[in-house]
């Protein structure tokens, strides 16, 4: 039997886990808003038209923050279109996704939805077609208490109290040629700096995220971060990272190793932030907002057909990836990677939340169900709170197309404020179970609370409305804790959550 070991101590820690690493994202794209969170007339719709079946699933994920309203969409968006009487809101062409935006859900409606979903809004401003002036106005509209032009407009539109949005993104993927108003690093650094200054003059309590590269493999990755941060470092709090993984070789072993790239990406951006800080002799440490991450490839071909057939349509079924079991395993490893970097990754937004590359799917007029990826996200959000531990993991390895020495067991651990320990582990081995041994004596008296296992014999298995539990977690009972020594068999290709409860 193959073996892995994990050595850990309650005093060997990475740091406090910022709960916002379990954030998500709703863009005005596809059926995320219309047909996703909002569908008046749906049997479960509340008095505002929000689907209660969707809210229930979102609450299960316990999502602390939701980025909104885009995405590529935001770079052509006029925030003023989305407030005021609904019958007077304009329909606009969305050039990002070649659809039409009705603006029937806007800032106030989304704020209401956030309350119901027990989450907070992270608002992205448009630095593509607009700039610092619109940015300061929207902060005044949302956060100023009253007695000024925009804050009084908010009050007139029905929100007496400020919306109190704490977290703001300074544009979206501004390095990308596909972006409306794409900028060079210099142009963006200047625009972000001026917008940040003016937004903070209106509300000094807000936190700001500057756009890093839209992906690790962008040709300007690295120089983009360095150059733009050199221009806005002191006025921003976080730099963003975005990363989506496909499965071009269709080999599970290659696919499951993608989290190695994620770790490299994070470490490189941390180094660049610190290099800019060092050059500036700054006392400030910039942290990371990984505000778009996921698997995304299943729907690519279908989307071309949909857009061709119905250019400028409304709420088209775009980016509707149906996630399979191996996608859930990679998502699990991505979450483990965020926990391992919890000292610097303070925000992470799964892109996205409903229908659009999402863990939650709906049918218009029909049901809502959890995709395979829902489960590791729910487990990490529920149990991965408190302190990220720094275990030393020794695992047998494998080589694949892009990486050598990929650990067959990918694992980490967290400890909550009551001293309960949770181990998250993916077994990447295609054929063999692996026994994981952990010495837990340093944690005092613990007992095995539960071992949650996600496994399916078919890596391509998916969940559907008619078969929603095809890939879903079960309670396993293979964990043995004896004299502080945990032994557990991790089945071949599996996601495991082992909860150890303080006695
Ligand atoms: O999440 C889908 C899209 O991916 C977002 O709109 C964009 O920011 C990224 O390229």
Protein architecture, described:
The chain is α/β, with parallel strands linked by helices and 503 residues long. The chain has 2 domains: 122 residues, Golgi alpha-mannosidase II (Immunoglobulin-like); 366 residues, Alpha-Beta Barrel (TIM Barrel). Helix content is 26%, strand content 25%. It has an 8-stranded parallel beta barrel, surrounded by 6 helices. A hairpin with a 4-residue loop joins strand 5 and strand 6. Helix 3 runs parallel beside helix 5, helix 5 packs parallel to helix 6 and helix 10 packs parallel to helix 11. Alpha-L-arabinofuranose binds next to loops.
Which features does this protein show?
11 helices; seven-stranded antiparallel β-sheet; TIM Barrel; alpha/beta; Immunoglobulin-like; binds alpha-L-arabinofuranose; globular; eight-stranded parallel beta barrel; 26 strands; 2 domains; 503 residues; single chain
SS summary, helix count: 11
Strand-pairing-aware structural class: alpha/beta
Major sheet details: 8 strands, parallel, barrel
> Which shape, going by the Cα principal axes?
globular
**Separation of the first and last Cα atoms:** 31 Å
**What is the percentage of strand-forming residues?**
25-35%
Mean pLDDT: 97
CATH superfamily of the largest domain: Glycosidases
Structural domains: how many: 2
Q: What share of the residues lie within helices?
A: 25-40%
- The name of the CATH architecture of the largest domain is Alpha-Beta Barrel
Give the spatial strand order of the biggest sheet. Answer: 3-4-7-8-9-10-11-12
Tell me the Rg in angstroms.
23 Å
- Quaternary state reads single chain
């Amino acid at each position: 039997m193959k073996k892995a070991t994990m050595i850990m101590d309650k005093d060997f820690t990475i740091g406090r886990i910022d709960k916002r690493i379990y954030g998500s994202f709703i863009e005005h794209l596809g059926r995320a808003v219309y047909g996703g969170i909002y569908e008046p007339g749906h049997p479960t719709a509340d008095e505002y038209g929000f689907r209660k079946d969707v809210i229930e699933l979102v609450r299960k994920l316990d999502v602390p923050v939701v980025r909104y309203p885009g995405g590529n969409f935001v770079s052509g968006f006029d925030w003023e279109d989305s407030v005021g009487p609904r019958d007077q809101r304009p329909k606009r062409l969305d050039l990002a996704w070649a659809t039409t935006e009705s603006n029937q859900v806007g800032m106030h409606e989304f704020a209401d939805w956030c309350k119901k979903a027990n989450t907070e809004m992270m608002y992205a401003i448009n630095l593509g077609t607009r700039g610092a002036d619109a940015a300061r106005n929207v902060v005044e509209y949302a956060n100023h208490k009253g007695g000024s032009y925009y804050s009084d407009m908010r009050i007139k539109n029905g929100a007496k109290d400020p919306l109190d949005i704490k977290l703001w993104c300074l544009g979206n993927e501004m390095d990308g040629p596909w972006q409306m108003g794409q900028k060079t690093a210099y142009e963006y650094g200047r625009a972000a700096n001026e917008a940040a200054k003016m937004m903070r003059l209106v509300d000094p309590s807000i936190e700001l995220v500057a756009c890093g590269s839209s992906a690790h493999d962008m040709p300007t990755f690295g120089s983009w971060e360095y150059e733009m941060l050199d221009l806005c470092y002191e006025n921003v709090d976080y730099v963003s990272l975005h990363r989506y993984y496909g499965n071009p070789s269709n080999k599970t072993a290659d696919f499951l190793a993608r989290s190695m790239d994620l770790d490299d990406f994070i470490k490189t951006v941390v180094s660049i932030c610190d290099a800019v800080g060092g050059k500036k002799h700054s006392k400030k440490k910039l942290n990371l907002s990984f505000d778009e991450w996921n698997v995304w490839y299943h729907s690519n071909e279908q989307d071309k057909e949909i857009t061709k057939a119905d250019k400028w349509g409304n709420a088209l079924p775009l980016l509707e990836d149906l996630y399979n079991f191996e996608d859930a395993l990679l998502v699990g490893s991505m979450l483990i990677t965020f926990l391992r970097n919890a000292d610097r990754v303070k925000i992470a937004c799964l892109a996205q939340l409903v229908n659009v590359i999402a863990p939650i799917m709906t049918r218009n007029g029909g049901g809502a169900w959890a995709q395979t990826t829902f489960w590791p996200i729910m487990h990490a959000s529920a149990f991965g709170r408190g302190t990220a531990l720094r275990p030393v993991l020794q695992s047998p390895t494998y080589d694949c197309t892009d990486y050598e020495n990929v650990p067959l067991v990918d694992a980490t651990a967290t400890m909550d404020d009551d001293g309960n320990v949770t181990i998250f582990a993916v077994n990447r081995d295609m054929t063999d179970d692996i026994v994981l041994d952990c010495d837990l004596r340093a944690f005092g008296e613990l007992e095995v609370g539960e071992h949650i296992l996600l496994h399916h014999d078919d890596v391509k298995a998916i969940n559907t409305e008619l078969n929603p539990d095809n890939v879903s977690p079960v309670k396993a009972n293979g964990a043995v804790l004896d004299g502080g020594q945990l032994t557990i068999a991790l089945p071949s290709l599996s996601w495991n959550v082992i909860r150890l409860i303080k006695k």
